[in-house]
Specification:
Blueprint (H helix, E strand, L loop, with lengths): L8 H8 L5 H6 L7 H6 L3 E5 L6 H17 L4 E10 L2 H17 L1 E10 L43 E5 L19 E5 L5 H10 L5 E5 L6 E5 L6 E6 L5 E5 L5 E6 L7 E3 L8 E5 L16 E5 L7 E4 L5 E5 L7 E4 L5 E5 L18 E6 L5 H11 L7 E6 L19 E10 L5 H13 E10 L11 H4 L7 E4 L13
Parallel strand pairs: 1-2, 2-3, 3-4, 4-5, 5-6, 6-8, 7-9, 8-10, 9-11, 10-12, 12-13, 13-15, 14-16, 15-17, 17-18, 18-19, 19-20, 20-21, 21-22
Helix pairs in contact: 4-5
């Protein structure tokens, strides 16, 4: 029986939303006599060149689908268009399709139009294969696509993402009707200071505002916005000032990708601003004075010859990705409960939520060589009254441990900790046992956890855990299958 044809259209549309590509829609048409009618009214329009063998078939499908959908005079829930523009004729096709959809309305709009003449070869995030990326005779003269003026009148729009286009020609002339817009992301679009202010004031319900690699603006100024909650700004040309007055702003991300220097910041009135992320060099010592209420801070910065000094009474979580040595970091953060220290940006994605069972601690994510000097620096860093009771070391053995024999000669008493957790993410090496021995020479934990993704066979009868004079009062082992014997002195 054809039960699908008996379902209400909105339920079938929900089922269709789980299909990934236009090809899937066609293949599934055998299930129902009314399938073609239902796909014609399907309000999710997702067009990506990666689903097609050629640009010609892509544009044919886009024109056919948008024409058939808009003929029913229905608003679209979402439209996503991702394509490299190779020929001026492509601009006319995109224009016709967008005009059709804009007239009937759309809630969520994502437009990624890469200009072919901007790239001598396909970028790494392109959905087109290298074989499809062949220069056309008119490619070098390709203008950027300018969005139609009808976009400014789409009053039902709630989410807007634009990449690689020019804003409508009447952008600063016609009144914006984005009264329902809550999310706005602009990337690789020329925009000036006045446009930013105009967008913010014309979108009273805007909650998330992102500007990425958009040349032209020097200042990001938003005043008196009651709905704004998240702001994300990245730039590779100098930005002079970031001035935000938004009582409900709680998250800010700033990335100085060109290392042009930190802009002046004025966000002291944003009393709910508790999460801040900043990428750039150098970092001034008074950086946190811009954020008197910050609780969670993520920093990507590099060593510039001076110590990194951070002072805050409210800071609870600090994620630092940097080449600063521990001896070059000075923290005056009495409320700090979690400090994640990484030498490699790769590990920054682990973020605050990783390893939730160790909330109050310092975590180290390392991929560099670890020697006696590093242990001494860690030991001295913990002596600075940071108050860490748990220490979690995440060790990647990309490079061999250097000589650690001199650790026992360090004239410092072992630092007492509640817990130490060691992670081994690479194949077994004799360095693993050496490293555990080194840790227990410097620290006296009440409990110890070992985790490994590979079998460990080096922890045998003569394990360093036995020889160490400081008794570990508890031991957990996860994923360390394969070792033959392990002797532990438990107090």
């Amino acid at each position: 029986m054809d039960r699908i044809s008996q379902l209400p259209d909105f339920i079938v549309h929900h089922i269709l939303s789980f299909l990934k590509t236009p090809k899937d829609l066609v293949r599934m048409s055998v299930l129902s006599k009314t399938w073609l009618h239902l796909t014609a009214s399907f309000p999710i329009l997702d067009f990506s060149i990666g689903d097609f063998r050629s640009g010609e078939s892509f544009f044919s499908y886009v024109e056919y689908t948008t024409s058939r959908f808009c003929h029913q005079n229905l608003p679209a829930h979402s439209l996503r268009l991702v394509k490299f523009l190779r020929d001026p004729a492509d601009l006319d096709i995109v224009d016709r399709c967008l005009e059709r959809v804009f007239r009937n309305g759309v809630n969520e709009l994502v437009i990624y139009l890469h200009n072919y003449s901007d790239y001598p070869e396909p970028p790494s995030d392109s959905e087109e294969s290298a074989s499809d990326y062949e220069e056309s005779p008119s490619a070098t003269a390709m203008p950027r696509y300018r969005l139609p003026n009808t976009l400014l009148s789409v009053s039902v729009l709630t989410s807007l993402t634009i990449f690689g286009c020019d804003l409508p020609s009447s952008f600063m002339v016609d009144a914006l009707k984005f009264k329902s817009l809550t999310r706005l992301k602009l990337e690789n679009i020329h925009i000036d200071d006045e446009m930013i202010t105009y967008l913010a004031t014309s979108c009273p319900l805007l909650q998330v505002f992102e500007i990425r690699s958009c040349p032209g603006f020097k200042r990001f100024c938003v005043h008196g916005h009651q709905s704004l909650q998240e702001v994300d700004i990245s730039f590779d040309a100098p930005v002079e000032r970031i001035d935000i007055e938004a009582p409900n702003l709680y998250e800010l991300s700033v990335a100085d990708e060109g290392e042009t220097g930190q802009p002046q910041m004025n966000l002291a009135s944003c009393k709910k601003l508790t999460s801040v992320s900043y990428e750039g060099c150098p970092l001034p010592n008074d950086f946190l004075s811009n954020f008197p209420f910050v609780e969670n801070l993520v920093l990507f910065t590099c060593y510039q010859g001076n110590n990194l000094k951070l002072s805050s009474n409210s800071l609870r979580t600090l994620v630092l990705t940097s080449d600063f040595d521990l001896e070059e970091i000075e923290l005056s953060t009495p409320a700090l409960g979690l400090f994640i220290y990484s030498c490699n940006e790769h590990y920054s994605g682990l973020g605050i939520s990783h390893l939730p069972h160790l909330e109050l601690c310092m975590r180290c994510y390392l991929d560099d060589s670890i020697d006696t000097l590093w242990f001494q620096k860690l030991r001295l860093f913990l002596d600075k009254k940071n108050g860490f009771k748990a220490l979690n070391l995440y060790i990647c053995m990309d490079q061999k441990l250097t000589v650690l024999e001199n650790l026992k000669a360090v004239e410092l008493p072992p630092y007492e900790l509640e817990h130490i957790e060691l992670h081994f993410e690479h194949e077994e090496s004799s360095d693993h046992a050496t490293f555990v021995d080194a840790v227990l020479c410097c620290f006296c934990p009440r409990s110890l956890t070992l985790r490994s993704s590979f079998p460990l066979t080096t922890f045998e009868e003569k394990s360093p855990l036995v020889k160490n004079k400081h008794a570990v009062k508890g031991l957990e082992i996860f994923g360390c299958t394969g070792f033959r014997s392990l002797s532990v002195n438990l107090d």
